[in-house]
Amino acid sequence: MSEDNRLIAIYLQDSFLTMQRFERKHDVSAGGRDLSGRTPLSRAAECGHEAIVSLLLSRNDVDPDYEDTNGRTPLSYAAVSGHLTIAKLLLQSGRVYAESEDEYGRTPLSRAAEGGHKELLEMLLESGAKLESKDRDHRTPLSWAAAENDHGAVVALLLELGAAIESKDREERTPLSWAAMKGRGAVVTLLLERGANIESEDKHSRTPLSWAARKEQEATFARGLES
What we know:
Helix content: 40-55%
Oligomer: single chain
Number of helices: 13
Radius of gyration: 20 Å
Number of strands: 0
CATH superfamily of the largest domain: Ankyrin repeat-containing domain
Order of helices and strands: HHHHHHHHHHHHH
CATH architecture of the largest domain: Alpha Horseshoe
Distance between the termini: 66 Å
CATH topology of the largest domain: Serine Threonine Protein Phosphatase 5, Tetratricopeptide repeat
Structural class: mainly alpha
Largest sheet: none
Number of domains: 2
Shape: elongated
């Protein structure tokens, strides 16, 4: 057995003993799947095991774009976890689709935006990911970035690239609404500085300001409007 195959065998056996979720015991193989439809490559991509990912990608019996039962690919897991090198390896293989959608309609770009992974997001965009992709709830990467990150770097990048600041989801909530609802003060300030509409109403007639009041962030809005 070659050294590469030995390392893969050790990883597979360790994964099997740890998870105990493979469909069949004899399915402990490089292309095997657990009960969630996840492959060893999917698990390795999520956990950041670069060497194992590289070895698995060199094999013909491994599908790097295989979707699990939730429709998620190894790239999707690498994106949300912020594993830049692994995402690069997957994309450079030429066998993965940067715009793959999971069962919720979310793309790797959406996941990277949610996680606040700026460099990974830039790489996905360079690889053909769509800036304005919408999931099943009509949320864009900007909507996810505004809701889940308070540092603003990803939000600023998306806006600089032309992301629609007033995009609305199924509930007609804008990125500013989400930032206010989640208490993301720095992002609220940034969006207001970029001209986001403070009076935009969702389906329930709630505005970003009303969400801010609920989160006791009126002062943040006042500063943003003054700037």
